[in-house]
Design brief:
The complex is a heterodimer. By secondary structure, chain A is of the alpha+beta class. Chain A contains six helices and four strands, in the order ααβββααααβ. In chain A, strands 3-2-1-4 form a four-stranded mixed β-sheet, with helices on one face. In chain A, helix 2 crosses helix 3 and helix 3 crosses helix 6. Chain A is globular and about 45 Å long. Chain B is α/β, with parallel strands linked by helices. A seven-stranded mixed β-sheet of chain B has the order 4-10-9-8-7-5-6, sandwiched between helices. In chain B, strands 13-14-17-16 form a four-stranded antiparallel β-sheet, covered by helices on one side. In chain B, strands 1-2 form a two-stranded antiparallel ribbon. In chain B, helix 7 links the parallel strand 7 and strand 8. In chain B, helix 4 runs parallel beside helix 5 and helix 12 packs across helix 14. The radius of gyration of chain B is 22 Å and the shape is globular. Classes of the chains: A alpha+beta, B alpha/beta. At the A-B interface, helix 1 and helix 3 of A face helix 12 and helix 14 of B.
Chain lengths: 144, 414
């Protein structure tokens, strides 16, 4: 099953089966949730800041496919220690590079759901910008 | 292979009519188990469209030259085939639309907007495809009418005992339900619902997009007022469907889309509408698509809709039996004898996207998602399901491959 191994490589399955930073923070400074209505993936993210808007702790919960949950787990490792502004400016390619798997357009939406929810949480708490392609009316994230 | 009864039709032979099966997917033969979303196309239908384009193509109606006459004849012959398929009293009651969704929107807007108001009720089912749910919810909200759902029992069948309570809440004006559920395969008691609608002076709008490909749909036997179908689910092309409506209702309705072709006379001080069905067919018709639709109807009629329905029952029963062998699979919906060839299921702890993805690597195409039935998904308490759906070209071997594939899914994510 070569194609299977390409998409669901060991690292992805590991994050899916043992998600990092799982569980929402109790005293969070920023939270948001989002879903991909096409497939029913759901992700909630909570963030606690240290000094200078640096993300000190991040926790997530969600349900959905292996790609969406593993990508969110990997994202939480990736963003710790970064400032809200740095994360807001983070291109999705950075996360996709970490994932390192070929994604069809449908699965791409699974992969970047968590990143979108995180950016939304930062926007709500710190007023950091949302990605341009979202327009101005995004409140509850729906990646269609 | 456990299908032991005499097959109602020879699927392996029919399969040869469908060019799509000549290819391999991921190096494996294509097992296409997503016909409820859209069916594959027989060469006979494709040839009919090509021949129309190559020999008879021109814009229809009013042209006085040979090609325009041929094209008009082709379109109107297709209309007659739809009429016969649905046992409609008259071909002028058959309106070509883009798909069943557009047909239902036509009724919701052209009938509903000016006839619904506060105190009125629109009744749909919890099982409904969004196509027959959202237009009614929207028009109800626009007009102030109430919007009610007939709920489902544990087997995914409508609780008809709720009807009296619903009727006591207002004037039932519209009853809108599918004939067959695209998610669970449930066959709805539309005849009874139509009779109930009539008792209350309501119109009955039937979405037969999922029924017409698989069984005989007779508008007079159902007793409905409007019924919509889509060609693409029944071996025809995408981009065309049909709405049937009672002539007396269609005649008193305002138009839905306006523009060319649908007029009688146009002037600066006003425009009058054309006769049925043209009043509801603004702009250039999907001519070649209609011709393909007609050829698809011929194909299905030649195979025999009774035989198709019977065969799909056998496949559904076989699939449910095979899935029941897997204790980590939950399937939804009524028993095989009361459902069409659709099986919705979930694999414990594994998201449908991952299931469908791994099956795709095996050349097996199933659908994973909410199947345009979010109210139903909520009822089932799931975000999404896997759905395998069958048609006249489905062979039991594909169901065996599905089950083998599910074992691989289970192993991969264990």
């Amino acid at each position: 099953m070569g194609e299977f191994d390409q998409l669901y490589r060991e690292l992805i399955l590991d994050h899916y089966k043992s998600p990092r930073n799982h569980g929402l923070l109790e005293d969070a400074d920023a939270t948001a949730e989002g879903q991909n209505p096409l497939c029913g993936d759901e992700v909630s993210v909570s963030v606690r800041f240290g000094e200078g808007d640096v993300v000190e702790e991040v926790g997530f919960e969600g349900r959905g496919c292996a790609i969406s949950q593993a990508a969110t787990s990997m994202l939480t490792d990736l963003v710790k220690g970064k400032t809200a502004a740095e994360i807001a400016a983070m291109p999705k390619e950075e996360l996709l590079g970490e994932l390192g798997i070929p994604l069809t357009p449908v699965r791409l939406k699974c992969a970047i759901l968590g990143l979108g929810v995180l950016k939304l949480a930062l926007n709500k708490a710190k007023g950091t910008p949302l990605p341009d392609e979202w327009g101005t009316s995004v409140r509850d994230l729906v990646l269609e | 292979m456990a299908v032991t009864t005499t097959p109602a039709l020879d699927a392996a032979r029919l399969r040869a009519d469908f060019p799509i099966f000549e290819q391999q997917i991921h190096g494996k033969p294509l097992a296409f188990l997503d016909s409820a979303a859209s069916s594959q196309k027989p060469r006979q239908m494709l040839d009919a469209m090509t021949e129309f384009y190559e020999t008879s193509y021109a814009n229809v109606h009013r042209g006085v030259y040979v090609l325009a006459e041929r094209a008009t004849e082709g379109l109107e012959l297709a209309r007659e085939k739809v009429r016969a398929l649905l046992n409609a009293p008259s071909a002028r009651e058959v309106i070509f639309v883009r798909n069943a969704t557009e047909g239902i929107n036509l009724v919701a807007y052209a009938w509903g907007l000016s006839r619904l108001g506060p105190g009125d009720l629109v009744v749909v089912s919890e099982l409904e495809h969004h196509s027959n749910f959202v237009p009614w919810q929207y028009v109800a909200s626009r007009t102030g009418a109430g919007f009610r759902m007939i709920s489902l029992d544990e087997q995914g069948e409508l609780r008809l005992e709720e009807l009296d309570a619903i009727a006591s809440e207002g004037n039932v004006k519209v009853v809108a339900t599918g004939v067959v559920s695209n998610s669970l395969g449930t066959i709805n008691p539309v005849e009874r619902l139509a009779a109930w609608a009539r008792e209350h002076g309501a119109i009955m709008v039937a979405d037969a997009a999922q029924a017409a490909p698989h069984r005989k749909v007779d508008v007079q036997a159902i007793g409905c007022d409007f019924l919509a179908i889509s060609a693409h689910k029944m071996c025809g092309p995408s981009g065309v469907g049909a709405l049937w409506g009672r002539a007396e209702l269609l005649e008193e309705m305002e138009p839905f889309l306006t523009g060319g072709h649908m007029i009688r006379s146009v002037g600066a001080d006003g425009t009058t509408w054309g006769e049925l069905p043209h009043k509801f067919e603004a702009g250039t018709a999907p001519m070649a698509e209609a011709v393909g639709f007609g050829a698809a109807i011929d194909y299905l009629t030649d195979v025999g809709l009774d035989a198709i329905g019977q065969y799909e029952h056998e496949l559904a029963a076989y699939a449910l039996d095979r899935l029941a062998e897997l204790p980590w699979v939950t399937s939804y919906g009524p028993p095989a004898d009361r459902r069409a060839g659709i099986v919705s299921f979930n694999v414990d702890g594994i998201h449908p996207h991952d299931v469908a993805q791994v099956l795709d690597f095996e050349g097996i195409a199933i659908r994973a998602g909410h199947h345009c039935c979010q109210p139903l998904m909520r009822k089932l308490g799931v975000a999404a399901t896997n759905r395998a759906s069958f048609y006249l070209y489905t062979i039991p071997d594909e169901i065996d491959r599905l089950v083998d594939g599910l074992h691989k899914v289970k192993k991969a994510f264990a």
